[in-house]
Amino acid sequence: MRVVLLTALLALVSVPRAQAVWLGRLDPKQLLGPWYILAVASREKNFMVEKDVKNVEGVMVTLTPENKLRVQSSRHGLDGCHQSTMELLKRDSRWVFENPSLGVLDFRVLSTNFKDFAVVFTQLEFGDEAFNTVELYSRTEMASPEATQLFTKWSRGLGFLSEQQAQLQKDLTCANKILQVSLPVPDPWLSRVPGRTLTQIQAVDAMTDEPEVRALASCSRRPLLDSE
């Protein structure tokens, strides 16, 4: 599966080399803590039918003692709120996580300002359905204009149609099952970025190398094919 992702190069999305390299050093600890998922672009089979009734999701990200990324989520389902937990392994030395045994082939941050929001790409495969998503993670219940703009930029750049994108309904019932709304954001995120201050930091894109970001654009247009 991974072969297809890495070999489908030269599609959309041009990212300045300096930004790509710098964000490639993102410390996973900068993603830790509570998040709301406020917007989603997805190629999941039933997403376009169900998107208008999907509510804001809650996510809590932590690191295990083995340095696995643990992602706990709470979302609305047919039987009320559904909570799940997955642990992801870091791939090589890059800021890319995966757990193929759970159907997660690729989990990466595409854009972030290291403080308020993150745009997250995920490649998934469940049974015979392979698809990908772009999600807008926000520390607050309402995303900033900058965050919304970057979510839209990446969704369009990766070929998602307007009907494959959704702003989630502002029902926080399930999100708050897992999030303590009063919980402060752990540690000043920007203090982990050497040589940068709050006023100097701008949102940066593409935390991996440019060819692989281009590969995302190509692969996101179609399901993964069997290659191994």
TrEMBL record:
Chief place of localization: secreted
Keyword Heme: no
Domain Lipocalin/cytosolic fatty-acid binding: from-to ranges: 33-164
Cellular component per GO, a single term: extracellular region
Signal peptide from the UniProt entry: 1-20
Listed Pfam families: Lipocalin
InterPro entries: Calycin (IPR012674), Lipocalin (IPR002345), Lipocalin_CS (IPR022272), Lipocln_cytosolic_FA-bd_dom (IPR000566)
One of the record's GO molecular function terms: small molecule binding
UniProt subcellular location: Secreted
Keywords: Secreted, Signal
Recorded family membership: Belongs to the calycin superfamily. Lipocalin family.
Name the record gives this protein: Epididymal-specific lipocalin-6
Organism: Castor canadensis
Gene name of the record: Lcn6
